[in-house]
């Protein structure tokens, strides 16, 4: 019983010390709800993120459409439709359409996309290693622009 009393006494001493060290406003008003400033910052971040994503999407669609036009692939406008652009890429690369299923399998999709971009690079008359660069974050956009607009 003495051990239990000492334990509760130590716990009470520790709790009292923590209460003394914390400001009263923190102890009494623990309101974790975000205020208007946090919502404004989140909205600004979301707006900037969406603008950047839109710029990347437009660049990718324009480049894929240019590649399709230069390889004389029919329906280059499919570059603007999210899943249909995979069909367009398979048509440019002259790969079977059923490979689109492999594009949705995790880890397999990385290998398949690289193989498709290598075939697209060859269809444009460029070395196939330009397709490997498509998985490198910054160089992927350079490689895409090169495959689309280089002579």
Q: Key terms for this structure?
A:
8 helices, mainly alpha, 151 residues
Description:
With 151 residues, the protein is an all-alpha fold. The chain has one domain (42-149). Helices cover 71% and strands 0% of the residues. The protein is built from eight helices and no strands. The longest helix is centred in the middle third of the chain and has 35 residues, at 36-70. The radius of gyration is 28 Å and the shape is elongated. The protein starts with a helix and ends with a helix.
Number of strands: 0
Structural class: mainly alpha
Q: Helical stretch count?
A: 8
Main sheet record: none
Low-pLDDT stretches are none
Mean pLDDT: 86
User: CA-to-CA gap between the ends?
Assistant: 89 Å
| Share of helical residues | over 70%
Which geometry do the CA atoms define?
elongated
The total domain count is 1
**Topology pattern, helix = H, strand = E:** HHHHHHHH
CA radius of gyration is: 28 Å
* Share of β-strand residues: under 5%
Summarize the entry for a quick read.
By secondary structure, the chain is mostly helical. The chain has helices spanning 2-21, 24-28, 36-70, 84-93, 99-102, 108-123, 129-132, 137-149.
List the helices and strands and how they pair.
Blueprint: H1 2-21, H2 24-28, H3 36-70, H4 84-93, H5 99-102, H6 108-123, H7 129-132, H8 137-149
Helix pairs in contact: 3-4, 3-8, 4-6
